[in-house]
Amino acid sequence: MDCDVLIIGGGVAGLSLAWRLAGTASVVLVEAEETLAYHTSSRSARQLQPSYGPGPVQELTRRTIATVQQISAGLGASILSPRPEVIIGTAGQVSGLTSANPILKPLEHADALRLSPDLRPAAFEAACLDDSALEVDVPALLEFYRAGAVAAGVRILTGAPVHTASRTASGWTVGAGSSAVHAAVVVNAAGAWVDPVAVVFGVSTLGLTPHRRTAALLATATPVNPAGVMVAAADDSFYYRPDGAHLLVSPCESVPSPPEDAQVHSGDIEALARRLDSVTTLGLGAVVKAWTGLRTSPKDGLPVVGFDAEAPGFFWLAGQGGYGIQTSAALAELAAELIAAGAGHPGRHGGTAVGPGTGEPRPGTAAGRLSPADQTLAEALSPLR
Fold this sequence. Notes:
Elements: E1 2-8, H1 12-21, E2 27-30, E3 47-48, H2 55-75, E4 80-82, E5 85-89, H3 91-100, E6 105-107, H4 109-115, E7 126-130, E8 134-136, H5 138-151, E9 155-157, E10 162-168, E11 171-176, E12 179-188, H6 194-200, E13 209-220, E14 230-233, E15 239-243, E16 246-250, E17 255-256, H7 266-277, E18 284-297, E19 304-307, E20 314-318, H8 324-341, E21 343-345, E22 348-349, H9 372-381
Helix pairs in contact: 1-5, 1-8, 2-8
C-alpha cells in the first residue's frame, strides 16, 4: 500500500499525529501490538500539569490543554476536570521549586492541610500549589484521536511490527506484519522501541533508554475524597491522588529497562505504602490494581521531534518521557508542521514535504514558514540539537 506518511507506533504520540495529519496527507499507522495504546499511553497518571517539566515542555503542555479543552467542548461531555496539585517537602526544597517556577504558588502549612486534610502535619515543613493542574480522561482522549484519524481516512494496522525497511527513490518501503507499505515519510513514534526501530531502518540511534515507572490503586481505611487534590513529594519520590473510591499512588521510580511489556515489582508498591502511611492518615490497604509503564527520554529530558540528520524522510517523534499525554496535541501539531515543511531544523532540509494524497513534494514549503514560537520549539526539540 502507498501513503504519504507512515507512522510507527499506536500510542498517544502516533495517534495524535495521525489525527492531526488526517485530511492533509494519506497516512498509514502501524502498531506492533494487537491493541492500540497498549503500553505507556494506557498506564499514565492521567494528569495535565502546567508546572511539570522544563520550559519547552511547559509550553507544549499549555498548548495541549488549550486544544484538549476545545476537544472536550466538542464532545459534549467534559474529559477534563480540575485536579490541583499540592507539593510537599522541606522548606528548602519547596523554596527552590517556587523560585524557579512561577506557576507554583507558596502555600501556608495550614492551607496545605485544608486542601488535603489527610496529610499528617509533621510529615512536611512547607508546601506549594499548582492550581491549574487538570485530570484528563485518557481513554476518551485516545479514542478521540483514533476515531478522528480513521474518519478522515487514516488506515490503522495492529499486530504489525516493523521487521524490514529499505530506502527507495521516493521514500521508504517498510515491512510491517504481513503488509508492505511505501511511504514518502516515516515517523518513528514507537515509544520505548524507537531506537530498535531506527536500527531496522539503518538509522543511527539516539540513545533513548526506557525507564520503568509504577503506579497502583490502593484501598484505604478512611474514605478518600474523590475530588481531592493530588499530593506529590518535592523530591519527586512519590505522588498520590484520589481515583474514584481508591488512592492512585506511585513511587516515581526511574529504573532503566529494556523495551518490554513492563511488569510491576511488588516491593516498590509495598515500600511506598509504608512510607505513605507516615505522610497521610488514610490508612493504606490492599492493592486493587497495579501497572508499570516505560518512560523514554534523552539525557536533557526534552522530547525529540524532527527529521533525522542523515536519513532523508525519517522523522523522530520520541523521547516524551513522562510528558506524553500532556504534550500530545501540541507535539502532533508541531510534528505535522515540520513534516509538511520537510524541515528537520531551521536552515536544514531533512526530508520531503508531502502534499495531500500525492506523495509528491509540496511546492513552496520551507522551515521559514514556521511561526517564530514554533521555530524556537523546533530548535529545542530537534534531533540535531
